[in-house]
Amino acid sequence: MKPEAHYNTGPNELYLDVRLLQNLSGTAKWGKVLAVLGFILSGFILVFGLFMQQMLQSPGRAERVADVGLSGFTIVVYAFVALVYFFPSLYLYNFASGMQQGVQERSRQKVGKAIGKLRVLFKFLVIMLLLFLVLFAISLVMLGTGLSDFSLQ
């Protein structure tokens, strides 16, 4: 029998050497820590948004805020930022949990699903970053046109 024949696995098994298993397991652990910290940060952003809304509605500031229209808009912006930050954390958590389970059980299917969840995370991040770049470019154009209008006056 060839030495490689020992490493052939069935469709629900996965053979990985010890070093690769340790690296995958360590990556999943750090991914889970990062995801949990992301959940906590999302919660803090939401709580901070509620705090800011209350501050903007405090006596003495309410009149100035009403003119600008920030009182209700503040919580919407902070809730949106918290939601945008929540989803990558969720995708990362799903990847880390699936990878830990797949490595522990040495299941090819579970490791494959975990990698698929990591792919979803990367897609989300690419879309989010492209949107932010487009918004940044639009804001630069608006700033440039605003400055040119200001210099003409």
From TrEMBL:
Keywords: Membrane, Transmembrane, Transmembrane helix. It comes from the Bacteria. The chain crosses the membrane at residues 33-55, 75-99, 120-143. This is Uncharacterized protein. It comes from Pontibacter mangrovi.
